[in-house]
Amino acid sequence: MYYNHDPRFPKDFMWGASSAAWQVEGAVAEGGRTPAIIDLNSKTKKPFADNSYAADHYHHFKEDVALMAECGFSSYRFSLSWSRIIPKSDGKVNPEGIAFYNALIDELVAHNITPIVTLYHYDMPVWVDEELGGWKNRAIIDAFDHYCRVCFENFGDRVKYWLAINEQNMQICYGHWLGVSKGCKDWFRDQWKINHIMNLCHAKAVNACHEMVEGGKIGPVPGCVPIYPETCRPEDQIAAMNAEEFTEKLWIDTDVYGEYSNFIKHYWAENDIDPDIRPGDEELMKSAKIDFIAVNCYRSNVGKYAPHDAKQQDYLLNKNGVKGQIVFPVEPGRYALTRNPYVEYNDWDWEIDPVCLRYELRYLWDHYHLPMMITENGYGAHESKDADGKVHDPERIEYLRNHIYQLGLAIEDGCQVIAYNPWSFTDLLSTGNGMAKRYGLVYIDTTDEEQNAAASVEELSMKRIPKDSFYWYSKLIRSNGRDWGKEMLK
Fold first, then answer.
1. How many C-beta neighbours within 10 Å does residue 86 have?
2. Which CATH architecture has domain 14-225+239-296+349-478?
3. What CA–CA distance (Å, rounded) separates 288 from 293?
4. For residue 1, what pLDDT is reported?
5. Span 266-275, pLDDT tens digits
6. Tens digit of pLDDT for each residue in 7-32?
7. Burial group, residue 463, by CB count within 10 angstroms (0-12, 13-18, 19+)
8. Over residues 459-484, mean pLDDT
9. What is the CA radius of gyration of the chain?
10. E strand map for 264-408
């Protein structure tokens, strides 16, 4: 298709932004909520703040929704906190948790903003981990099914778009970093048992949604990082294919087709891996028919040939925001990742590659023929207020403009994309970098240092300050993707 074109977005296209409960809500010990594993993990990342206060969305949600409406949003993707809804292993529902999310959903609906709800976004309740064994034990399947059914029963009359498990592929690929591997003695093999249990939980959620929510639609949320081959060398082509398989494709294949690919079955057999597939499991997976694919896509990678005698290297992400700190992985005999000389990088060594979004959408549409929505895409940066109290973020505007333009080109290519919800609406707690790495269209007037020193949230400003990107995005939304703020055709 055309390299340069003048894209048109569908009239009913949904524009909004995204967040996640543990990163934005705060109020971790209020309203009947009990701790999540991610709470404990976040307390070990000083000098970055933990999630005790985050963006204090719990106390500011009406103000936040009013700002969404001011910006022109027609959708908002957020997650529910499992431990706020079901605080203990007795399975009893917390009425305060239900009341909070009902109030948030009602506020969104009152402003004509479509809620898009993630059921699980990295925040395993401590009671699930300690009493049931977390993702390592099949006891979680019934507990997760119960939680999902409580959510569908209480919110399904107003929430029609549901997302099951956020970035399951990333939770397995980076299990040590995200805490999923906790307690595993042989992660090389145990990860596939955990992955299988997560697939069964996903299937339960899909089937319960279709059973309980009239007109309900549900899909997976893979973390998508398209991988280009370094050169036209045939071995680099295979290496890029291997990297795609082991970081993304095999998960989406399973979600779409309800069965494991021959590729991964052969890999298991060759490496003496038993994912513990029991009678009835395959039938359950096959019965779960997803309605769409939610796409989290920030960047691309480059794959190259790695010989069998290469030295293995784990993926070491840049955690301090100083360029040049990333260490790319090497998987001997499979692939290695490397820098791309044709794209720019941000301070955390993430590729800035707008074309990758079009590439990814084309790939997903060609392979699966399912509607898609963008649920994460954004620019993290060090930011602060200027002397005038405003926040100027031209790099984010450029990032969003170029990525949305490529999204528009993907739609012109024939891809069915129904929504764009970048990360994030407000600044929130970055998974690895606290408040130091800011993604929001709206600045939250707080810092890691202030949050670490505060005895209560009342000591913090938490003022909402729309950034320049907020106003730019508002104009784009109100023109339905026509007012770019600059000439886009080349």
1. 24
2. Alpha-Beta Barrel (3.20)
3. 14
4. 58
5. 999 999 999 9
6. 899 999 999 999 999 999 999 999 99
7. middle
8. 95
9. 22
10. 293-296, 301-304, 330-331, 335-338, 344-345, 351-352, 372-376
* Whether 167 is catalytic: yes
In this model, does residue 375 exceed pLDDT 80?
A: yes
Taking the C-alpha atoms of residue 82 and residue 72, their distance in angstroms, rounded to an integer, is 29
Instruction: Strands of 53-98 (E only): list them.
Output: 75-79
Q: How many helices (H) and strands (E) does the chain have?
A: 18, 16
Return the percent helix, strand and coil in the chain, to nearest 5.
Answer: 40, 15, 45
Contacts of 366 (CB under 8 A, 6+ apart): none
Among 248, 331, 376, 383, the active-site one is: 376
Among positive and negative, which fits the CA dihedral 168, 202, 434, 437?
positive
Q: Give the mean model confidence (pLDDT) for residues 209-230.
A: 98
Q: How far is CA 282 from the centre of its chain?
A: 26
**Buried b or exposed e, range 413-422, using 16+ CB within 10 angstroms:** bebebbbbbb
pLDDT tens for 399-421 read: 999 999 999 999 999 999 999 99
106 phi and psi angles, rounded to 5 deg? -60, -40
**Any idea which residue has 């980076």 for tokens?**
174
Convert the pLDDT of each residue in 40-88 to its tens digit: 877 776 666 788 999 999 999 999 999 999 999 999 999 999 999 999 9
pLDDT value at position 479?
96
459 classed as catalytic = no
Q: Tokens 């795609």 belong to which residue? A: 244
**What is the domain partition of the chain in residue ranges?**
14-225+239-296+349-478
490 pLDDT higher than 80: no
Sign of torsion, CA 431 434 438 443? positive
Of these residues, 107, 167, 351, 383, which one is catalytic? 167
- Among residues 18, 28, 294, the alpha carbon closest in space to that of 165 is found at 294
pLDDT digits (tens, 9 = 90+) for 137-196: 999 999 999 999 999 999 999 999 999 999 999 999 887 777 788 888 898 899 999 999
Phi, psi torsion values for 101, nearest 5 degrees: -70, -30
